[in-house]
Amino acid sequence: MIFVVIANSEEKQKTALSAIQSTGHDAMALSNFSELPELLKTIPFSGILIDLITSTKASSAEKESTNDLIQLYPHVKVKIIDDKVLILGGGLSLEQFVQNCNNFKPRTIRKSERRIRHIPFLLSEESEFIQPEKTVTLNIADGGCFIYSTGEWTIGARVWLRFIDNDKVMTAIVRWWQPWGNSKKMPGIGLIFD
């Protein structure tokens, strides 16, 4: 597991990195919040530790631009005193926080912006479009999209999309599926374009 530490002092960074390494895991240090988005796009982290003083001194723009990203990961605010890393609130030790992060699958964030777009098209399990489903995208990014669908889908299956306005056909792979009626979430499939 790899953790990221945000602390504006080199001394605090070294203390936090050493404490995490003593648990048998790796960590990287950042001196401010503005460096975080680019790092999260390339390295799958297991958790984030934020120095209280660094957080307090950060601008409201820095906090606002990174708050949603931080919420995607296990995270804690810490106070670094001498050679100790104290987790604030919840009564956790650093070792307990690291242990809790074992249940979190390390991830990177989306490299491109997700845009809300409602593009109608026909969705089919076969290239002949024998029984296509009439559907629409809910959002789209550079490499894929989320499509409204109440059908049953297999992760890893290939699908065909025919756009209504120009009859262009594309193929994609089902990356994830949200079944209809399974929760309060919108039913559909997440696709990655070929």
Structure in words:
This protein has 194 residues and is of the alpha+beta class. The chain has two domains: 2-103, Response regulator (Rossmann fold, 3-Layer(aba) Sandwich); 115-193, predicted glycosyltransferase like domains (Thrombin, subunit H), CATH 2.40.10.220. It contains five helices and twelve strands. It has helices spanning 10-21, 36-42, 52-57, 60-70, 94-100, and strands at 2-6, 26-30, 47-51, 75-81, 84-87, 115-116, 120-124, 133-140, 144-148, 158-163, 169-178, 188-193. The chain has a six-stranded antiparallel beta barrel. Strand 4 (75-81) and strand 5 form a beta hairpin. The chain is elongated. The protein starts with a strand and ends with a strand. The mean pLDDT is 89.
List keywords for this structure.
single chain; 194 residues; alpha+beta; Rossmann fold; Thrombin, subunit H; 2 domains; six-stranded antiparallel barrel; five-stranded mixed sheet; elongated
List the helices and strands and how they pair.
Elements: E1 2-6, H1 10-21, E2 26-30, H2 36-42, E3 47-51, H3 52-57, H4 60-70, E4 75-81, E5 84-87, H5 94-100, E6 115-116, E7 120-124, E8 133-140, E9 144-148, E10 158-163, E11 169-178, E12 188-193
Parallel strand pairs: 1-2, 1-3, 3-4
Antiparallel strand pairs: 4-5, 6-8, 7-8, 7-10, 8-9, 9-12, 10-11, 11-12
Short description:
By secondary structure, the protein is α+β, with helices and mostly antiparallel strands. It has helices spanning 10-21, 36-42, 52-57, 60-70, 94-100; strands at 2-6, 26-30, 47-51, 75-81, 84-87, 115-116, 120-124, 133-140, 144-148, 158-163, 169-178, 188-193.
